[in-house]
Amino acid sequence: MPSKKIFQFLIGLSVILFIICNVYFFRQAIKPRAFPALGQVKNFHLTDSKGNPFTLDYLQGRVWIASFFFTTCSDICPLMNKHMAALHRTFDKVNGVRLVSITVNPEYDSSDVLTAYAKKYQANPEKWIFLTGSREEITRLAVQSFRMGSMEEPVFHSSYFALVDRHGFIRGYYDGTNQEGINKLFKDTSTLIIER
């Protein structure tokens, strides 16, 4: 009977499709990450340029790029922030990406100072966040979580940007003064946006 053969064919086809889908999703689940985690950012308590408290919770579920700088720096900071501004323009319309710039001179860089500094770079405060806080908290974050900087230097910062995934794992360090490093950061950020 033709209808019985069609029914058997459809059942067989369904079983084959089910197996193919399961094999595909199993391979996706065990597929290694594009690049490994290099550490995890511990929770922190800082203040944004609007004077509001800011913790790691605000970044959960988002890919973010972190840098350490200070507003009166005339050495590498202007070039780093120029590159950060380029990244900001690139990812401004991508909801799942944030840029985070943390001052290492909190005694001078108040929320008001950071607001004025952010305007120089036309930073959208929802997407490119400038943070200040206590020296102890910033030092702990830079040295213990990001492993950038030194406890001994009164005003320390690295020339590197750190790329952090949506679970708070550091996935890469990139020279913020080097165009080649910025190009790699852009590529790796794009990879993390689609990584689940």
**Helix-and-strand structural type:** alpha+beta
Assess the beta-strand content as a share of residues: 15-25%
| CATH domain class name of the largest domain | Alpha Beta
Shape: globular
**Could you report the average pLDDT, rounded to the nearest whole number?**
85
The helicity comes to 40-55%
* CATH architecture name of the largest domain: 3-Layer(aba) Sandwich
Q: What is the CATH homology-level superfamily of the largest domain?
A: Glutaredoxin
Q: How many β-strand stretches?
A: 8
> How would you characterize the largest beta sheet?
8 strands, mixed
Series of H and E elements? HEEEEHEHEHEEH
Please work out how many helical segments DSSP would assign.
5
Distance between the termini: 48 Å
Strand line-up in the sheet with most strands: 1-8-7-4-5-6-2-3
Q: What is the domain tally?
A: 2
Radius of gyration: 22 Å
Give the topology, please.
Blueprint lengths: L1 H29 L8 E2 L4 E4 L4 E3 L7 E7 L7 H15 L5 E7 L7 H10 L7 E5 L2 H11 L14 E5 L4 E7 L3 H16 L2
